[in-house]
């Protein structure tokens, strides 16, 4: 099973999606994203890993995900079953999904 490995220069597409949600709905969004990942996203070609983070202030949720390529990520976006889950998330929050490359990693 693949896990999240953050390595500079890795040949992966990294999605960082920052959701902004009303404070009372953060946990609902987290649960929706976890369920969508477990039931749908992780079974799509090119999926590597996803990590759901709840902001300490209660108004943000971040999905840090890795895909084998930007094309695999775009294919997921076009998938009707995936779109259904994404629309459910957008009914709870606004989102700012962006693809990144890892440029630098530091460890102590």
Give the gist of this structure:
This protein has 108 residues and is an alpha+beta fold. 33% of the residues lie in helices and 31% in strands. Helix 1 (26-39) packs antiparallel against helix 3 (80-92).
Write up what this structure looks like:
The chain is an alpha+beta fold. Helices cover 33% and strands 31% of the residues. The chain is built from three helices and four strands. It has a four-stranded antiparallel sheet with strand order 2-3-1-4. A hairpin with a 5-residue loop joins β2 and β3. α1 (26-39) runs antiparallel to α3 (80-92). It is globular. The chain starts with 12 loop residues before the first strand and ends in an 8-residue tail after the last strand. The relative contact order is 0.29. The mean pLDDT is 94.
Please give the structural blueprint.
Blueprint: E1 13-21, H1 26-39, E2 47-54, E3 60-67, H2 70-78, H3 80-92, E4 93-100
Antiparallel strand pairs: 1-3, 1-4, 2-3
Most strands sheet: 4 strands, antiparallel
Strand/helix succession: EHEEHHE
Stretches where pLDDT is under 50 for at least 5 consecutive residues are none
The N- to C-terminal Cα distance equals 26 Å
Number of helical runs?
A: 3
How do the strands line up in the largest sheet?
2-3-1-4
C-alpha Rg (nearest Å): 14 Å
Total strand segments: 4
The global form is globular
Structural class by SSE content:
alpha+beta
Content of β-strand: 25-35%
| pLDDT averaged over residues | 94
Range of helix content: 25-40%
């Amino acid at each position: 099973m693949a896990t999240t490995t953050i390595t500079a220069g890795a040949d992966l597409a990294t999605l960082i999606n920052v959701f902004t949600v009303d404070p009372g709905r953060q946990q609902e969004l987290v649960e929706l994203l976890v369920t969508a990942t477990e039931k749908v996203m992780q079974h799509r070609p090119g999926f590597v890993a996803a990590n759901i983070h709840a902001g300490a202030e209660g108004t943000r949720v971040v999905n840090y995900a890795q895909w084998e390529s930007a094309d695999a990520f775009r294919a997921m976006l076009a998938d009707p079953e995936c779109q259904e889950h994404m629309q459910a998330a957008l009914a709870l929050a606004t989102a700012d999904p962006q693809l990144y490359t890892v440029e630098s990693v530091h460890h102590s």
